[in-house]
Write a structure and sequence with these properties.
Blueprint lengths: L11 E5 L3 H12 L3 E5 L17 E4 L1 H9 L3 H6 L2 E3 L1 E5 L5 E5 L7 E5 H13 L4 E4 L3 E5 L5 E5 L5 E5 L2 E4 L7 H6 L5 E16 L12 E7 L2 E7 L5 E8 H6 L3 H11 L4 H4 L1 H7 L6 E9 L2 E2 L3 E3 L14 H18 L4 H33 L2 H17 L7 H7 L4 H37 L40
Parallel strand pairs: 1-2, 1-12, 2-8, 5-14, 12-19
Antiparallel strand pairs: 3-7, 4-7, 5-6, 9-10, 10-11, 13-16, 13-17, 14-15, 15-16, 18-19
Helix pairs in contact: 1-4, 1-10, 2-10, 7-9, 10-11, 11-14
Bound molecules: flavin-adenine dinucleotide (FAD) and the ligand COc1ccc2c(c1)CN(c1nc(C(=O)N(C)c3cc(Cl)c(F)cc3C(=O)O)c(Cl)s1)C2.
Length: 486
């Protein structure tokens, strides 16, 4: 447990939502000395056996690690994660190609969601100024009075007052409902046509079935699967596919046909029987993207995590962005001496552009991956990124590097990416032009030329290709033009 400061012990902060962001945020506020009341609709997951309906593991990267470091949790969480140094691309033929995430020592971590949530709740509980309230589902609250109404599973209702309400209650936030009733509150949500389903790849003879320190990817344009390793030597495979495709597969045989066609190398590793069984265990889950602004109401309430910005998972940044929300808010609390009337509007001003940028990036990557990313293209793009980064490390930084391995504000990373694309495209254009000119000069030198002025631009050149009709038959003959007599 960290030391708390004494400045804010009089004020009560209610954190609504005890998921990943709420549990971490409770630590941030408790560390500052606030009296923190965390309210979570579910039972204490440390007593529940299994959390259904969420991704089982997640990729933790720099932004999330920095947040954990602020509350002294980074080492513990990293020690319980599995480093993924590179992507392993699986081609349809089963060919494997690995692409490192960055320089040596640059890796992301596969962490177990439920374990991370448990560890954060346990850390929160170590603060003497912390109260965890499970089985408290927020029904309503007032922005004017700060009064919240919670329903309990026994049917009772509890009313609680707070000086600051922090909405960390996820993509379908009840706290955000009040925002929707207010003028000038912007809100958008998009469900994508793809769903996801998780399948487990068991160990083989007690060992990982595939190389463990990789994020395994099977990019198949419309379909994609990825696999992240777990400490129990299983892999959690996440299959992404349009719901209409999921719905077409209704029998075990159809599951096998599908996997034989798109992911043949995974069949012996997941197991045919397990595939046919697990495919029908849970329905495919939906993915929603939520953007809103402002994130605050007066000096009374602020939204963080998925409650403020749910993103599609195609950058592995949702939790990392939510964790970074906590750091940014805390840095502002320090900067403005916990004056909430200044911190809350400043938090909206700074954080909305960044969270909207990562939401757009994740959606862009989804569209990209779905449109034309197969294993060859994915390999080419990542190798090109890494090559350009290696030869011009200060000029060309891959977008995923800025997103995953730095705390470059997301919107600045996007701006730089656009600028870099202009440089690269400009460079490629210049290169192509130079190459064309070079070819032209060579052709001028080697092609036979007549001594009269150029005839019509087009001139059929006698076939030199043995009559195969090669392209050279219609090359325009480029003739030196006689200098104009003055
Ligand atoms: C398939 C998939 C893969 C993902 N992979 C990654 C990844 O690799 N890396 C990454 O960074 N992110 C990833 N994410 C995103 C990540 O899961 C979310 O961004 C993260 O869980 C958000 O945390 P949160 O605490 O804001 O919301 P949640 O995790 O949704 O927690 C909200 C909490 O609030 C509680 N709650 C809800 N309503 C109420 C109420 N009315 N009263 C009280 N409590 C309430 C809920 O019970 C829950 O505990 C992935 C998401 C998906 C779907
Ligand atoms: C548990 O469920 C999930 C679901 C999706 C993801 C994760 C965990 C973790 N994800 C990460 N994505 C990046 C990334 O930057 N990009 C561009 C990628 C984007 C996609 Cl879709 C991909 F397949 C590989 C990369 C890659 O580069 O490896 C990381 Cl870096 S980690 C996506």
């Amino acid at each position: 447990m960290e030391e708390t400061t004494s400045r804010s012990s009089s004020k009560v902060v209610a954190v609504v939502g005890g998921g990943l962001v709420g549990a971490l945020n409770a630590c941030f506020f408790a560390k500052r000395g606030f009296q923190v009341e965390l309210f979570e609709a579910r039972e204490d997951i440390r007593r529940a056996r299994h959390m259904k309906g969420r991704s089982i593991n997640l990729a933790l990267s720099h932004r999330g690690r920095q947040a954990l470091q602020h509350v002294g949790m980074e080492e513990k969480i990293v020690s319980q994660g599995i480093p993924m140094n590179a992507r392993m691309i699986h081609s349809p033929s089963g060919k494997l190609s690995s692409i490192p995430y960055g320089k040596k020592g640059q890796f992301i971590l596969s962490v177990d969601r439920a374990n991370l949530n448990r560890e954060l709740l346990t850390e929160a509980e170590t603060y003497p100024n912390m109260q965890l309230n499970f089985d408290h589902k927020l029904q309503d609250w007032s922005a004017e009075t700060g009064l919240m109404t919670f329903a309990r599973s026994d049917g009772s209702v509890q009313e609680i007052q707070a000086d600051l309400i922090v909405g960390c209650d996820g993509a379908f936030s009840a706290i955000r409902k009040q925002f929707l009733r207010r003028s000038r509150f912007n809100y958008s949500q998009t469900y994508i046509p793809h769903g996801y389903m998780e399948l487990t790849m068991p160990p083989v003879h007690g060992e990982f079935a595939m190389e463990p320190n990789y994020l395994h990817i099977w990019p198949r344009n419309t379909f994609m699967m990825i696999a992240l390793p777990n400490l129990d030597k299983t892999f959690t495979c996440t299959l992404f596919m349009p719901f209409e495709e999921f719905e077409k597969i209704t029998t075990g045989e159809e599951v096998m046909e599908f996997f034989h066609r798109y992911f043949p190398d995974t069949i012996p590793l997941i197991g045919a029987d397990a595939l046919k069984r697990d495919y029908f265990r849970l329905p495919a889950q939906a993915m929603v993207s939520v953007k809103c602004s402002p994130y605050h109401i007066g000096d009374k309430c602020v939204l963080m995590g998925d409650a403020a910005h749910a993103v599609v998972p195609f950058y592995g940044q949702g939790m990392n962005a939510g964790f970074e929300d906590c750091v940014v808010f805390d840095e502002m609390m320090e900067q403005f001496k916990e004056d909430l009337s200044v911190v809350l509007p400043e938090y909206t001003r700074v954080r909305v552009p960044d969270d909207h940028a990562i939401a757009d990036l994740a959606m862009y990557n989804y569209v990209e991956m779905r449109a034309h990313v197969n294993s060859r293209w994915f390999l080419f793009r990542k190798l090109l990124d890494n090559f350009l980064y290696a030869i011009m490390p200060k000029t060309i930084i891959p977008l995923y590097t800025m997103v995953t391995f730095t705390r470059t504000p997301y919107h600045e990373a996007v701006e730089r990416w656009h600028w870099q694309n202009k440089v690269i495209n400009g460079g490629l254009l210049l290169g192509a032009t130079g190459a064309a000119l070079g070819v032209a000069c060579v052709l001028i030198k080697i092609l036979p030329t007549s001594n009269k002025l150029a005839g019509p631009a087009e001139k059929t050149v006698e076939p030199t290709d043995g009559g195969r009709g090669g392209v050279e038959r219609h090359l325009p003959s480029i003739k030196p033009v006689e200098a104009v007599k003055r």
